[in-house]
Amino acid sequence: MEDPTLKTEEPVVLIMTSVKAEKEAIERGLKGSHLFKVVTTGVGPAKAAATTAVELTKHTYKLVINMGIGGGFVGKAGVSSTVVADLIIAADLGSESEEGFLPIEELGMGQSVIATDTVSALEIVEALNKLQVEVCYAPILTLATVTGTTSTTQALQERYPEAAAEAMEGHGVATAAELADVPVMEIRTISNQIGPRDREAWRIKEALLALEGVGHALTEVWS
Ligand SMILES: O=C(O)c1cccc(C(=O)CC[C@H]2O[C@@H](n3cnc4c(=O)[nH]cnc43)[C@H](O)[C@@H]2O)c1
What we know:
The chain is α/β, with parallel strands linked by helices. The chain has a single domain (13-221), classed as Rossmann fold. It has helices at residues 20-30, 45-58, 118-130, 150-159, 170-179, 204-221, and strands at residues 13-17, 36-40, 63-72, 82-90, 94-95, 102-103, 113-115, 135-142, 165-167, 184-193. A five-stranded mixed beta barrel has the order 3-9-8-4-10, surrounded by four helices. It has a two-stranded antiparallel ribbon with strand order 5-6. Helix 1 (20-30) packs parallel to helix 6 (204-221), helix 2 packs parallel to helix 5 (170-179) and helix 3 (118-130) packs across helix 6. The longest helix has 18 residues, at 204-221. It binds ligand LNDFFVEH. This is Futalosine hydrolase. GO terms for molecular function: adenosylhomocysteine nucleosidase activity; methylthioadenosine nucleosidase activity.
């Protein structure tokens, strides 16, 4: 991202998050910085894409970040840790076949992988490292359905061995940002491990606290 610290009172970074609790956690971390605007999209890639596209028609931003809580793959991203995406991957965009899942690229009909803004992503990873936050830089999957079985977990791990996390909005936000020619990032703090559905095991409070910490780290990078 270009240097956003040019003297302006206008927000230059748009943060898209799915629900109010996430927005409030991020805003606590941002402590009123005028450089950032946080908007809720609702849950899922379609709402995320539509809301981001509308917001990008209202104002010019230098960077869009999809932030929120997410599920972490066991052994890659534990509860309360943070994942910064290098790639945002729509993991269910394609077709089933008897030979296995075919991503949309193999059908010649689109793009399931969107690259994030490397410079900005690595700056935030470095800031989180300095704050001694456990952080990993890896692909984040986007799915319209939360993974809740062992078989889907294994299938995703086989298809995307590098992926560290999944959530439901990244590819929607990234598609809208890409169409508007604005760099994009995704950052998730982990509330639960991906596997057989166990909503009781979700550590939402802890993940929201970690999200607040990421908000603070953003102001350390861009202030
Ligand atoms: O109940 C609450 O207090 C509460 C507070 C904040 C957020 C929530 C959510 O349910 C957020 C839904 C949001 O979380 C992402 N997410 C979290 N874990 C996963 C997962 O394992 N797989 C996919 N998505 C996950 C997702 O992006 C949803 O938008 C509740």
